[in-house]
Amino acid sequence: MRKYAPVSFPDVRLEGDFWRERLDTVLARTIPSQHKKLGEYGILDSLKLPQPPPPLRFPRHANGFTVQVFWDSDVGKWIEAASYALAHRRDADIEAKIEAIVDDFEKAQAPDGYLNCWYLGREPEKRFTNLRDNHEFYNAGHLLEGAIAYFQATGRRRWLSIMERYLDHIYTVFGSEAGKKHGYDGHEEIELALIKLYHLTKDSKHLDFATYLINERGHQPPHFFDAEREEREEKGIDTQRYVFPNYEYSQSHKPVREQDKVVGHAVRAMYLYTAMADLAAELGDEALKHACEVLWKDVMDTKMYVTAGLGPSAHNEGFTWDYDLPNETAYAETCASVALIFWAQRMLHLDLDGQYADILELALFNGALSGLSRDGTHYFYANPLESDGRDTRWDWHTCPCCTMNVSRLVASVGGYFLSAAEDGIAFHLYGGISTSVGVAGTEVGVREISNYPWSGDIRIELSPETPKAFDVKLRIPGWAKSFSVKVNGEAVSAQPANGYFTLNRIWSKGDVVELDLPMVAERLYANPSVKMDIGRVSLRRGPFVYCLEGADNPGGPVQRLKLPRAAELKAQTRSDLFGGLPVVTISADAVAIDQGGWEKTLYRTDPPGQEKATLTALPYYLWANRGTHSMVVWVPEA
Amino acid sequence: MRKYAPVSFPDVRLEGDFWRERLDTVLARTIPSQHKKLGEYGILDSLKLPQPPPPLRFPRHANGFTVQVFWDSDVGKWIEAASYALAHRRDADIEAKIEAIVDDFEKAQAPDGYLNCWYLGREPEKRFTNLRDNHEFYNAGHLLEGAIAYFQATGRRRWLSIMERYLDHIYTVFGSEAGKKHGYDGHEEIELALIKLYHLTKDSKHLDFATYLINERGHQPPHFFDAEREEREEKGIDTQRYVFPNYEYSQSHKPVREQDKVVGHAVRAMYLYTAMADLAAELGDEALKHACEVLWKDVMDTKMYVTAGLGPSAHNEGFTWDYDLPNETAYAETCASVALIFWAQRMLHLDLDGQYADILELALFNGALSGLSRDGTHYFYANPLESDGRDTRWDWHTCPCCTMNVSRLVASVGGYFLSAAEDGIAFHLYGGISTSVGVAGTEVGVREISNYPWSGDIRIELSPETPKAFDVKLRIPGWAKSFSVKVNGEAVSAQPANGYFTLNRIWSKGDVVELDLPMVAERLYANPSVKMDIGRVSLRRGPFVYCLEGADNPGGPVQRLKLPRAAELKAQTRSDLFGGLPVVTISADAVAIDQGGWEKTLYRTDPPGQEKATLTALPYYLWANRGTHSMVVWVPEA
């Protein structure tokens, strides 16, 4: 079903300033500091079996277990991020750290292949008795992604072999055959990892098991989680309360092909849909593809923050109802936006349609990137769209899932820039890359030069070894009000189809494509069904959504500022805000509610005055890097 | 320290339409339906000991125990409310129901006097091992209040004697003496109940124990809750996690006289402060009074919703930080506003200062009364100040504390109208009452006639048996922009002091005081430190705060409406909204954000239009009685 396939990131060199800076930060600071945190918080110790369980560094969760149940996954994600770093540049120290972890896992692995340090260290007899709540497959999935990445970066197969042994064990216990458990995990993740492994090894058993898990999910009666609970009761194993007492939480309320509403835990949902889209492509499964499209439309039409944040509610870490997008209490977990990028990329390769790339880009530059601080060692787990000035980035989190999700994303971001097919190259993102792609039977050197995302002035140099005819597809972002294309200096006029402008010609060494995407600061309005945003406006320029932060708008909380509809939006490149980093801000004449004269009065009949003011807006992803300040994305209109 | 004392409610006949209707509803519908619910939900069964614990009708709480731990208190509060009903009119059926409950408690009571059905029915050996979390004194306090009310209404002493036996047992276990536990309950309540009992019996041991509890609270090290936990550990009793892991939650973070910030669980805080104010008056304790005043100022200056709702956060059911008053997620538990009324009444009787009566009135007509439906059988536990149209009143609640708090309040509301002293009568609330008060050595018949709270046109008839000189103090509400007073038709001019206008003369039979408090619909603004309300306005008329509800503002969610600052506010009496009940609405010309033309678009650059509209506002307490609709208290200004 797929025509275009992504050009994977080790083959895409990042040369543009924007991503170079983020990548360098992640490689130099984030990934090393994350290993340190894994040590400090006892997560690495928890792999050293057999031994008494490490002291619990965190209070027990209200639901009766500790965060340790997820710790294998955090190690897996760190290995994945660290392996992406190795793919950029081998590093003996990182490799030694990974090898030490692999040593621990190798020692921990049970003779039959089972490998989950939480169960092995604490209650090995209870393994595979509570997939609903306890994440064994989720952990396995992340460990597997780490193993694949490590193998791809280094050629070392030991870790991957350990994981293959574990999978073989899982395949003896779970599956459709009589006598096996007919089940799946409450937290999806292994499905997409198995498809990655299938791509690597071409061993169809992994694809088969991923297919099984996707097909089994949500079938009832009996519902697997009920059958599992009954079995626990028969065995006298404590039946803990369902962490969240409905099947929607884990997208297991009905078979996946019948699902038409995005529900439940946002990260779980995104991982599931990613795997569904992957599998639809692998199997040519139109019903599965259709379900993905219906779910995509549901989230896009009614459930996504303007920042591509997903999941308004901390209660279920996920979705609630249509148009419920509160700003100050937005959960919008970093992981959910990262996972939306995964899903969007899969959808994009089912159909080369710019709507998917638009969301991939939106999530990347806003909801996902906002999770990582400028210094690369502080994080947001939740990404609210408004703050009273009490939100600060954390240097770690009790559940550190988001930290490594953002590092593995940035470390592999090159893989989202372009795709190749037999007869073409498609450019999705811009920002300065070089690569070489096999197209139309020749190797094509590609260089894309731009100051994107700050400027839409893009130059692409193509150098096929031999002149060949093929498509060059240029994404025209949904935010672009206009665009122009030149080939070797000559204007080309045509209309983009599905968000891509296609140039088909015989390309020769030294051909140059120039794409101009004028970036205009503009206003965005929300559907008034989003009651929280009625009478409010947000600002956008290029791929960035903007916010007002107190640091740039002194004199009171930014909530005091109103933006008249007629006020001109002025974009300005500023290098003084973040130690030389050039940033395009948006400023405008505004109105400010007068803050003075209240003393200790809480309510009064005398109205506050208004005064003229100026507002300055900053790309959302940069907020909360200069101390704590109030912040709004949706500004009241004057 | 007290000069004026409240005239208690059985002596104050409600004759005005407003309270007559609410009282009749509570007597005829609320109190009987609550007894039915106590039966349906297994709460009454839970008293029938010894027997196996009743099946758990509710899921276990995340914190490991069920709501049953509070059930004695719910029974106690129902007995209190039902006894207030009996004080209005004896009723054999209600008395039989109460007697049946007393039979159960009598059978359940342990030989040593201990009486808590949750512990006696489940784990009697663990009694008094976890006051931090498990509410034994809290339950005892509510049972005691019920017993006092029942005795006062009927003269039956059996139930009160049972409770006195239980208290005597408590006094042998807890106290300052060596060998006793030095402790208090995590949920305050018994303190104020003990002072009520002292007032009834004049037995100083009850006042002494209340004093002990107030004085002991927050002393450390060792903190009682730590000492108690250590004792549990020594005995091998499960040490459950602190329901909310800080001492502020239960106002036990420091000795009460040192407390200067309102913190923690809102209802706990209000019950504590009520008892503190009571005790300050009993003991003439200036330090305790000062602490009450400092805490009062803190909540008034920075932590109270405009509706007198308290406690913004569901997380701790309580307070967070200064000016944190989110509207849609406001917790503002009904119980907290009811308890604020208790506290305000105690403060008012420490100092006859209108600021306390103003808040008593505000809480009564808004944050408390909003907890009860028109039909008297549906409730709000949380009282948000904005709704997207999904909030509905419940016919019962897993934790039904608020249901009986509002019924006991309404059933005894006459007790808040006026106070008497040796030399005077003070009128706090108006609305149509008659009573007889002993003043200046004579009995004074009092009749207050008005259509308050809808109109401020008030007539008071005074009929002393013999002519006597005494003060008549008329509260001039803080909301009144002007007022006028006539005595026997002749205007009297003077200034009120501390919110009361004092008339001192020789009063004779047939004297008439006329008080006019013009009620004007007006705008209220919040201190801009309340960031949620910047650029917004709320409406008030007399004691009522208003809201916009969808039922009166069709055409889209009320969040679409903006109120221009210059728009005239028009008050209108409407009898068509609630089946003949006269209600004063406020209407004004407004601006509405156009709702059309969006289809499935979530965000767009094209701004929505605005159109002229009219808005209609309704007293807040009446919302959510006509189906589910959107609602706002704080309306954006155009």
Automatic annotation (TrEMBL), chains A, B:
Residues 425-519 form the Non-reducing end beta-L-arabinofuranosidase-like GH127 middle domain. Residues 522-636 form the Non-reducing end beta-L-arabinofuranosidase-like GH127 C-terminal domain. Keywords: Hydrolase. InterPro entries: 6-hairpin_glycosidase_sf (IPR008928), Beta-AFase-like (IPR049174), Beta-AFase-like_GH127_C (IPR049049), Beta-AFase-like_GH127_cat (IPR012878), Beta-AFase-like_GH127_middle (IPR049046). It comes from Paradevosia shaoguanensis. The lineage of its organism: Bacteria, Pseudomonadati, Pseudomonadota, Alphaproteobacteria, Hyphomicrobiales. GO terms for molecular function: hydrolase activity. Pfam families: Beta-AFase-like_GH127_cat (PF07944), Glyco_hydro127C (PF20737), Glyco_hydro127M (PF20736). Residues 11-414 form the Non-reducing end beta-L-arabinofuranosidase-like GH127 catalytic domain. One of its GO terms (biological process) is carbohydrate metabolic process. This is Glycoside hydrolase family 127 protein.
